[in-house]
Specification:
Order of helices and strands: HHHHHHHHHHHHHHH
Helix content: over 70%
Largest sheet: none
Number of domains: 2
CATH architecture of the largest domain: Up-down Bundle
CATH topology of the largest domain: Growth Hormone, Chain: A
Structural class: mainly alpha
Oligomer: single chain
Strand content: under 5%
Number of helices: 15
CATH superfamily of the largest domain: MFS general substrate transporter like domains
Shape: globular
């Protein structure tokens, strides 16, 4: 196993975007009350960050392959910091622009840090991605608590100061990252098509990755269900906010803690097998969710988190292993785009289905969708990088 400290730094860099996205999102009602906008604008503000990442991740990944991964990542952190601080000097009604610029910076630092893990950890990559995603995921857990405390003690604008400060710390730590030895051989070839449209299309045309991209989207559906619609189920059962908070904390812990363990297991077995097991566990538990109550609901929800966390970290490891030479940044950027697409579409899908047919059908339909995706990869073979280079 390579030295862990570069992986930990990269995990903290990724923490910047998970924290930055959610510390603002969970406090947008306070912003709406302050400037006098409605819930539709709250939805747009959340979507703007995700939309910027969807568009920019493949682009910045491709730029990193040509111009240097570390430099591109540092530029993304700088853009995120500048955009965050800009909120203090612009009209609060321009928050939509600020969020889009934050998302663009986050796209660069997120996609490239993800790719850099693959260059530092050529061997035992699953464990490295598990540690990386565990640190990144901590941002989703602590941001509501920290953001709520900031708004309570100061004001909404101070959230952006804290986000910028975390970004500055990540920038400073990243300066100490060594040049990854694995970068040799990952650079552009003489006939490489660079960062143009053809270069990005060549990544999309890598057919052996498409089943895993589908799995990525479906897994993000499950993430949306866990953190968006599991509370709806809890509310429908009349359990109250305290039980809801305890349950979501337990789910978050299971989702985070399983990732280093699942990554280490993938190194010993293979990532494709662990992904299949995780996806089956998550899909089956999502189907069971509307039919259980009490402690059984806790157990099923925690097992869903275990399944989702296993799929999350090991799809990162598997996709990075199959990236073509000179295309690691672009490939991980494309994978990140599919994550964002799933993150946006998942809550929308279960919301629409549940509105029309009821919450039980919504859970079952999304769980079955996961099992369908499992069928797509049931006989999938992992192709080594040597064969796709």
């Amino acid at each position: 196993m390579p030295e862990l400290w570069p992986i930990i730094i990269l995990g903290f860099v990724a923490f910047v975007t998970s924290f930055g996205a959610h510390v603002v999102a969970v406090n947008l009602p306070a912003y709406a009350a302050q400037v006098g906008v409605g819930v539709a604008m709250i939805g747009l503000l959340i979507a703007a960050y995700d939309a910027a990442e969807v568009v920019a991740k493949p682009l910045f990944g491709a730029i990193a392959d040509r111009g240097g991964m570390k430099q591109t990542m540092l530029a993304g952190i700088a853009l995120f910091v500048i955009a965050s601080l800009a909120y203090l000097w612009v009209d609060p009604h321009l928050l939509l622009v600020i969020r889009f610029l934050q998302g663009a910076g986050a796209a660069a630092l997120s996609a490239v840090s993800l790719a850099l893990v693959g260059t530092y950890a050529v061997d035992r990559r699953g464990r490295a991605y598990g540690i990386y995603n565990g640190i990144k995921g901590a941002g989703y857990v602590v941001s509501p608590i920290i953001g709520g405390a900031i708004v309570l003690e100061a004001d909404f604008g101070m959230i952006f100061v804290v986000a910028a400060a975390i970004g500055v710390l990540a920038f400073a730590l990243s300066l100490f990252l060594p040049k990854p030895k694995a970068a040799i051989g990952l650079g552009l070839k003489d006939d490489d098509d660079g960062i143009g449209l053809a270069g990005l299309l060549s990544v999309f045309r890598q057919s052996n990755l498409w089943p895993w991209y589908v799995v990525t989207v479906v897994n993000m559906f499950f993430v949306g269900i866990l953190f968006g619609f599991l509370p709806v189920r809890v509310y429908a059962l009349g359990y109250g906010p305290l039980i809801n908070g305890i349950l979501l904390t337990a789910v978050s812990a299971s989702y985070l803690l399983i990732q280093p363990l699942a990554g280490a297991m993938a190194d010993r077995v293979n990532p494709a097998l662990t992904i299949r097991v995780g996806l089956f566990l998550a899909g089956a538990c999502v189907i069971l969710t509307p039919f259980v109550t009490g402690w059984l609901l806790f157990i099923v929800a925690i097992l869903t988190g275990v399944g989702v966390g296993t799929v999350w970290t090991n799809t990162d490891a598997l996709v990075s292993q199959q990236a073509r030479a000179g295309k690691l940044g672009a490939t991980m950027g494309v994978a990140g785009t599919f994550k964002e697409i799933g993150d946006m579409l998942g809550p929308l899908l279960i919301g629409v289905v549940s509105q029309v047919f009821g919450l039980t059908v919504g859970f079952v339909a999304c769980g079955v969708l996961g099992l369908f995706a499992l069928g797509l990869i049931a006989n999938g073979k992992v192709v080594s990088r040597d064969k796709v280079a």
